[in-house]
Amino acid sequence: MIEYIRHAVDRARAEDFSGEDEDDVRQTAQALLGPKHERDFGETKGTLLPDHEIELDMSISSRPYRVRRTARGTDVILEPDTQEARVAALDIRTLISPRILSQRQIARIARDPAAQRRELDALLADRLREFEEKRRTLLDQLATLQLTRTRLKERAQTLPARETELRKTNDQIAFLEEGGRKDTFERLQAYRREQNWIEELRREMEATAKGLEEQAAATQASRDRLSPPTHNANIPVNGDAELIVALGATARLGVVLEKGSIDSATIKDQVSVIMERARSPLASGGSAN
């Protein structure tokens, strides 16, 4: 039975037997697992007929497998005895690494301490490799952490200088910000003073221009309305004038006192004042020759 299990999991090769002490075990296994064309009841070596089939059910990592070994080769079936059962392209030697021992091997190991150590090493080989990989990983992590610690120490040594530089930079920024605000405020005040001065100057210029325009208009009106005298100014006029303009002076500027026709009583008074420096006898109902 043990040898058939060896055959099913493909562990009956020469390299699967360690040392010269297992040569007889290897020879026995090869003699038992040799091919045979027909059954002859032990007259020749070998027990595997052309139509032989060995099935081995096993569970690896809580997952069921079925190994079927025939003369054509080895098939690994996933999820046997279920609807999802299927043949997978797996290497049975990679899938499982059993240590198969016969009764003779077990008895020999029990008598030989060196064989016991070899078997223990073989049983623990996977765990030892796992521990070795973890040890190498931890060593790499330790080296990385030590390097990080060294870098942090170096940065910690330069931290005071960096803090000093940062403080100086912050002070410079604060000084520039304060000076910038002060300069901006002074410029704003200067601009406002100039704006007020310009506004006052503008109002003064507008008032002066308005006065000049009024004076020009009055002068032009006086020029247009005045008529050159055509008679002696000392002689009273009893005519039929349609427009008489009485002019005066205020602050050395010409102004219009009255204007209208001779029919107006106010105009007659102005004419009397200008021409005779007294009220005309015409105004009291007298007559003049």
Structure write-up:
This protein is 53% helix and 14% strand. It is an alpha+beta fold and 289 residues long. The protein has a four-stranded antiparallel β-sheet, with helices on one face. Strands 5-6 form a two-stranded antiparallel sheet. Strand 1 (53-60) and strand 2 (63-70) form a beta hairpin. It has helices spanning 2-8, 23-32, 92-95, 103-111, 113-123, 125-225, 265-276, and strands at residues 53-60, 63-70, 73-78, 86-88, 244-250, 253-260.
Mean pLDDT rating: 76
Classify the helix fraction into a percent range. 40-55%
| Largest beta sheet: strand ordering | 1-2-3-4
Low-confidence stretches: 278-289
Largest sheet: 4 strands, antiparallel
Radius of gyration equals: 68 Å
| Proportion of beta-strand residues | 5-15%
Termini gap: 181 Å
The backbone outline, from C-alpha atoms, is rod-shaped
| Helix and strand pattern | HHEEEEHHHHEEH
Q: Give a count of the beta strands, DSSP E runs of length 2 or more.
A: 6
How many helices in DSSP terms? 7
